Write the structure tokens for this entry.
Amino acid sequence: MHHNQSLTARAIFLIIAVVSPGHLLAQTNPKAIPSLQEFYQRLVEHYNPSSLPSEEERMRVMHQAQAAPAEEISRALPWIFTALAHQDDQVKLVACAALLAISLRPDSAALLRAHIKPIGDLLVSPNERLQGIGVEILGYLKPLPPPEAAAPMLAFLKRTDANTTAQAGVAGFLMKYAPDNPENVGAVLNFLDRPLDTQARIQALQALGTQPVTDPNIIDRVVAALDDRNSRTRFAAAEVLPRMGRRALLQAQPELERLAEDPDQPDDVKEIARKALEGLTQSR
Amino acid sequence: MRRNSIIQAESRPDEPSGAPIIRLAAFTIFVAIFSPIPSNAYSTYSLASLESNGTVVGTAVTDGTPPPGTNMNHTAYATATLTSPKGRKATGSMQGTNTTHAEALLSFDPTDTGDYLEASTHTVYCPCMGYFIHNAPSQASVPVPTFNVAYSSYIPVDHVSGPTGCSVGLHSVLSMIYMGDALRNTYRTTESIQITPDGQNSSGFYQNTGNTRNYGYGSPANGSTLSQADEDGVALDCYLWNNAGQAIPAFSYDVSYPYSFQGQVHYSGAASNPLESLSPPITWDMRTVVDETNPSAPTAYVNYNHTCYPAHQIKVNGTVVYSYTPPENDLAYIAACLSQLNAKITGQTSSVQVPPQ
């Protein structure tokens, strides 16, 4: 009885396996969704600048890279990094799509730790878009960016010909993950002392305000920005100080009080200075 | 462009006033027998117009010219009274031989827009008969429409995942969540301004950013949406509400008037998440064209260029002229949009009729 049932089950399984539409599709439909490995292998082996993957295909790959098992990612990584080393920046960007998605995974540091060097190379690319994406990939690694990620970030911050908005983010990154490293602090100070445009300076202040900061010299630079000639920069400095912690607020208190009472300041600057001072009272 | 509006009063003189009934009766006979002009020959009207600098002009015109061949002159009087929507008034009076016109002017006030009303009185003095003929008053109006052009970007869902996590003590998440704007009537970024193409004037520029709030372990507390239960008031503990900040509103705008019937508002800006040091900014570059070729049915269209996340919208006087809602709200899509792996959304809308204000 049991033997008969088993035979019947095997027969049914065989029939299903043979006539299954999905099985047929995988065997015969060339448009079946390729695995990550297949996608990137095809990209580099059949490179054609006039038929690069569309935005929809890149998004599909990103979703695949987020959801795929770690083993599938590991199998695909050699091909992804081959694409990243391609001479065509458009191919590099397709590789970046997968790497950015992988960097947002919970296991991204484990998956990419052995590949910090080629990712770091993006930061020395002349293409500012690639620089920015490289910074994001390194900075998002989970559960924490590995220590090896700090070196390319630091080198990037020291450059004077790079994407200043991305550099501003790196200043915040270094102060978050290695605030006690004197070389990091020195690079951040040098960056803040550069003649940055308003957008980059605001970005830098904002990035520094994403975590408590204790270095008095860095706090000094933020306090100095309360006296910047651009009202938006003054606003930014007052806005971020409470998030930099009580020490920063205490150091800034006289300047914040002056700003809050200065009739020549725009209303929103006075308001944000008052709000920052309230933070000082509340954190006692 | 000078926009005019004329309402011609009936050219029928009123009854003479101020005379005793007996004298009136005698004069009526006199007029009937000797009057050189028919009583309905006068021309009176009002005119309201808008100058290119936004000044509104009300004009009262009285033409009491006797018919050709009449060897006499009349004295024509006109009084123009112009009233703004908010009740500002200006008056002007003139007199002249046979014809005259009086003007009343109100300067442009961006806070006082809408329909301006000109109310005119017209009188003709006939020396031959020795009395004033009061013609029916006339009216005219001219609209001074203003347009509020408002841009905003917003997260169209309750919350989204962020790129980084947090870990404090026992509480740890690999991806903090961020409060969205859906059903909260909030925004990520906004710019707005009031323009009056007729006056080539703009006022009240406003820029701002919304509060950015992130949440750690345990959120959303009710399992689906962020609520009061997530607001524990304890910062930087990676548990429920974790941190708050405000992106810096440092946006740009310019207003131009390439034609007297057209105003263009150009907004551009960038704003990044104040709680994430590496997150690239959302950006926008939007030009809204308000056209008053047909003053009673103004239109607007938008040239747009912005990141594919979050939602972006342009309203003119409350009417949606442009609206973009992202197709996805997941972390990979947001990252692809902000890092500009995905192309910016660009194009131009068709014209939409907008209400004048």
